[in-house]
Amino acid sequence: MNLHLTSAFAEHFSSGGSFARITEARQFAAQRLGESVPPGSALAKQIDEAIESAIVRAATITIQSLGTTHDVYDQLVDLFQRQPRLTVRSSTSVQQQAYSTPVPIAYLASVLADITPEKTVYEPTAGNGALLIGANPTNAIANELNLDRAIELKTRNYRQLTQKNALVYRPEIQTDAVICNPPFGTLKDEQGRTRRFPIYDTWTSQIDQAIAFKALEVMKDRGSAALILGGKLGQDATARSERYNRRETRAFYHLLYSH
Description:
The protein is of the alpha/beta class.
């Protein structure tokens, strides 16, 4: 990741700048890099990542400079609307399901998790750090498998930064809060069979459920958490209800609420 380019985008957004289309953002980047940015290229993906990281940096400044939750949220919605649509996907981002949480949603999740600068917090799939914008970096533990995103996270001076498999890794210390938006879906083994992961006395094939339960092991007994998990789609409420009522999903939510 080009950290200088990220800083340039962050300054642009923090000063009220915007990009109506991604082509404008690529022109902005091309002027600073001294080279063209072909659509769909690896460089175009790097620019998308730089924009996402810049938005998080700008959002952090917004939170620090405003008072009420409503004021911060409104400003973050404005910030989100000033960024262009980011659509470039690399093989790595597809494999790792590297989808970032929009900053207004990330902020509300941090509020729901009762994250404050005084509290310690753990994020198992930190991405570009959006869900940690309400935390004090010196009290935050971030884990991110993707190298480029981990490089950006190093600029935040987190208490601890790791690049581990969130399905099996857990920090040694307990934290006041846990927050995450892990990848959704299933993983295949070498024989092409769907992998299953243990959670308490049952199993799940859904990686977001497995990562969430592993992360919750880090939370203190009186701690709090916000989990953004994969939903169940359906053409109407009945269809969605039936999918939520399937054995694996029902077992997951039963364990979640029981424990």
